[in-house]
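Appendix B, example 12.
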Amino acid sequence: MTYRYQSAIRLGEVVLNVHDLEKQTIFYRDFIGFKVLNQTSDQVHLGISGSDEVLMRLVKTDLPAQDNYGLYHTAILVPDRPSLGAALKHLLTNGVPLTGGADHGYSEAIYLDDIEGNGIEIYRDKPVSEWDIREDGRIIGVTEEMDADGVLAESLVQENFALSEGTIVGHVHLSVKNALVSSKLYQRVFDLGDKMTIPSASWIASGNYHHQLAFNQWAGPNLAKRGEKLPGLNHLTIFVSDEIFFKASLKKAELYGLTILEKSENSFLMEDSDGIRTKVTLEK
């Protein structure tokens, strides 16, 4: 089985360590539009109506924040432009600060941070016919001004805002010491294609998507390695549906020097040299 865009992988939950679990839960529920699927005293599972799949999980930590490698942003993919318009309208109406908005050629995206500085992108993909797809499979993105008025004009009319059914984690963008080194490593482990690379950043994906993972070194080469319980990214999740592919990914992760922290018949948790953790799960 392959996933959308003839991909061998799909992204699952992104897990964040947060210092103030209550305030972060309110932010992701009331402003981003997630539904609380399950909640305990030390963690919250977030998803959308009509599905029991966890898209994000917030885990309480008492450790203080520090500058380190990890998450640049979690990219939440909504199914269409009216859904993006509804999200933008809701954020603006509630005075949530935005850090940017852009037309990337293959998508339209809005950017913001949560209350502890974790980056968030909310975006919609344009029709594939509008993507700049090259003969070698690269998919070239641009950064131009988003037509915010046009997005708002198509906004869904909702009495109570929530992320639309069909919303998923579209991609995860990581902050690393060396973007090209990290990109090559993940390409090798998961057989991903280089969709676009510049000297300081790289966008990669399986199949015909524009990117499922991205890496940049814009924070510089001197940040600390991530610690397991530091605020910020705990781990991201990659699902695969082919057992041979799963076993091959584990062998390559070991071969290329990734640390395997946990391993079972259907999953493994790996850590790279920046301390970024990825859980890989075989979806049967």
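DSSP finds five helices and 18 strands in the chain. The chain has a mean pLDDT of 97.
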